[in-house]
């Protein structure tokens, strides 16, 4: 389980990105890079980090399922993810 502070910080980043998305798009189209620099640093979409929705883990993230590899394995073994079965050969 990730630290709660890291998960909350990432949620705040997502809110900032959504808030400033239109303004950033307009400033980039106009070529006003000085105004872009004055926006909050965390309002840039490239600063976002994918995190597991269950555990908050930042590494081993499976984007198709929005969970980490560890949570994915547990859910798959429990049969919670449709169409996923444990392979054996």
Automatic annotation (TrEMBL):
<comment type="similarity">
    <text>Belongs to the universal ribosomal protein uS14 family.</text>
</comment>
<dbReference type="Pfam" id="PF00253">
    <property type="entry name" value="Ribosomal_S14"/>
</dbReference>
<dbReference type="InterPro" id="IPR018271">
    <property type="entry name" value="Ribosomal_uS14_CS"/>
</dbReference>
<dbReference type="GO" id="GO:0015935">
    <property type="term" value="C:small ribosomal subunit"/>
</dbReference>
<keyword id="KW-0687">Ribonucleoprotein</keyword>
<dbReference type="GO" id="GO:0003735">
    <property type="term" value="F:structural constituent of ribosome"/>
</dbReference>
<dbReference type="InterPro" id="IPR023036">
    <property type="entry name" value="Ribosomal_uS14_bac/plastid"/>
</dbReference>
<keyword id="KW-0689">Ribosomal protein</keyword>
<dbReference type="InterPro" id="IPR001209">
    <property type="entry name" value="Ribosomal_uS14"/>
</dbReference>
<comment type="function">
    <text>Binds 16S rRNA, required for the assembly of 30S particles and may also be responsible for determining the conformation of the 16S rRNA at the A site.</text>
</comment>
<comment type="subunit">
    <text>Part of the 30S ribosomal subunit. Contacts proteins S3 and S10.</text>
</comment>
<dbReference type="InterPro" id="IPR043140">
    <property type="entry name" value="Ribosomal_uS14_sf"/>
</dbReference>
<dbReference type="GO" id="GO:0006412">
    <property type="term" value="P:translation"/>
</dbReference>
<keyword id="KW-0694">RNA-binding</keyword>
<dbReference type="GO" id="GO:0005737">
    <property type="term" value="C:cytoplasm"/>
</dbReference>
<protein>
    <recommendedName>
        <fullName>Small ribosomal subunit protein uS14</fullName>
    </recommendedName>
</protein>
<keyword id="KW-0699">rRNA-binding</keyword>
<dbReference type="GO" id="GO:0019843">
    <property type="term" value="F:rRNA binding"/>
</dbReference>
């Amino acid at each position: 389980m990730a630290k709660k502070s890291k998960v909350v910080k990432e949620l705040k980043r997502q809110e900032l990105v959504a808030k400033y998305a239109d303004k950033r798009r307009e400033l980039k189209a106009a070529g006003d890079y000085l105004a872009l620099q004055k926006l909050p640093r965390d309002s840039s979409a490239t600063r976002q980090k994918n995190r597991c929705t269950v555990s908050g883990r930042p590494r081993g993230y499976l984007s198709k399922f929005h969970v980490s590899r560890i949570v994915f394995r547990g859910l798959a073994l429990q049969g919670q993810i449709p169409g996923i079965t444990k392979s054996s050969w």
